[in-house]
Design brief:
CATH class of the largest domain: Alpha Beta
Organism: Chryseobacterium muglaense
Distance between the termini: 9 Å
Structural class: alpha+beta
CATH architecture of the largest domain: 3-Layer(aba) Sandwich
Number of strands: 18
Number of domains: 3
Protein name: ATP-GRASP peptide maturase, grasp-with-spasm system
Radius of gyration: 22 Å
CATH topology of the largest domain: Rossmann fold
Strand content: 25-35%
Helix content: 25-40%
Order of helices and strands: EHEEEEEHEHEEEEEHEEEEHEEHH
Oligomer: single chain
Strand order of the largest sheet: 16-15-14-17-18
């Protein structure tokens, strides 16, 4: 039996499940609408079972587990409870979830995906990537605009979030954090404190690179954009052209080493290619691999289903 953990609306997991069905592999998928309705653990008898929508499963019966995103969801309480008590209940369920992940691994199930390490620190990743020999854009973090003087006035710079981008709702409006170019002349007229901000020089790219790695296998596509916008999320699909890409062996080696250091079993990596080199930008443990699979014609979903 295969256990799939993902969000309901994850189309990539949908495709993997479709392949599993085609291959006649038995699986169960946990998501927001596929809840754990009961838990029965007996440490003395070594019995660890869970109910999923009324059906009981022995955790030892799962030979492989694929974690895509999200978390285990449990049948909730119907009655109104105090917010502090609700916080305690959620803490209890979080500890229970971690034990289930632990037990699945210890019982011999093959674990695919980042079931434990689901987040990375962008600055830490940049520093590690640089030590491994990746080229990275010149990178700065400043909290006073007056320190912007360390930037070269003849260069172009961008800023983006240090942490993961999160939507902000304010007065019925939605705000998203995109990569933006910096006006150095404007900054040099200011002298005030700001939240510590990530600044990088803008790479004059030929194309963007999106990489997806799963275990030791690596796939990549090149994206050519016919637009001046520096954030690809703002560019319509008609202004893009995709091609499958074979990365140099030394780049593949560095990717595998970086994944090992970060203890990631899969993830997406964004890079830029200029006339001289590949520039590492960031890694996302829960990144979307559908564009890589689709535009590269790699059938990654089938590859994962075959492993499971």
């Amino acid at each position: 039996m295969i256990l799939i953990i993902s969000a309901d609306d994850d189309t990539m997991t949908d495709a993997i499940c479709a392949w599993l069905s085609f291959l006649n592999k038995k699986f169960v998928r946990l998501s927001e609408n596929q809840l754990i309705t009961a838990v029965v653990f007996d440490f003395k008898a070594d019995v660890f079972k869970i109910d999923i929508n009324g059906l009981r499963y022995d955790l030892k019966g799962f030979q492989s587990v694929f974690y895509r995103n999200g978390s285990l969801m449990y049948n909730g309480f119907k009655a109104e409870i105090d917010s502090h008590l609700k916080e305690f209940f959620n803490s209890e369920l979080k500890s229970l979830t971690h034990f289930i992940y632990y037990y699945l691994e210890k019982s011999g199930a093959k674990i695919y995906g980042n079931i434990i390490n689901r987040e990375v620190n962008k600055l830490e990743v940049l520093h590690i990537a640089q030590t491994l020999g990746f080229e990275i854009p010149d990178t700065y973090v400043i909290s006073q605009l007056m320190d912007g003087s360390i930037l070269n006035a003849s260069e172009n710079y961008i800023t983006k979030s240090i942490s993961e981008v999160k939507p902000i709702f304010y007065e019925n409006d939605l705000y998203l954090n995109y990569t933006k170019e910096i006006n150095l002349k404007y900054l040099n007229t200011k002298n005030e404190n700001i939240i510590p901000s990530l600044i990088q020089n803008r790479i004059d790219k030929i194309y963007e690179v999106r990489v997806f790695f799963f275990e030791k296998t690596i796939w990549a596509i090149a994206t050519f954009e016919f637009s001046d916008d520096i954030d690809g999320r703002n560019i319509i699909e008609g202004a893009k052209k995709y091609l499958p890409l074979k990365l140099p062996k030394d780049i593949n080696r560095k990717i595998r080493t970086l994944a090992k250091i970060l203890r990631l079993k899969c993830g997406t990596i964004d890079m830029l290619k200029n006339e001289k080199d590949f520039y590492f930008l960031e890694i996302n443990p829960l990144g979307q691999f559908h564009p890589v699979s689709h535009y590269g014609n790699y059938q990654i979903e089938k590859y994962i289903a075959d492993l499971l």
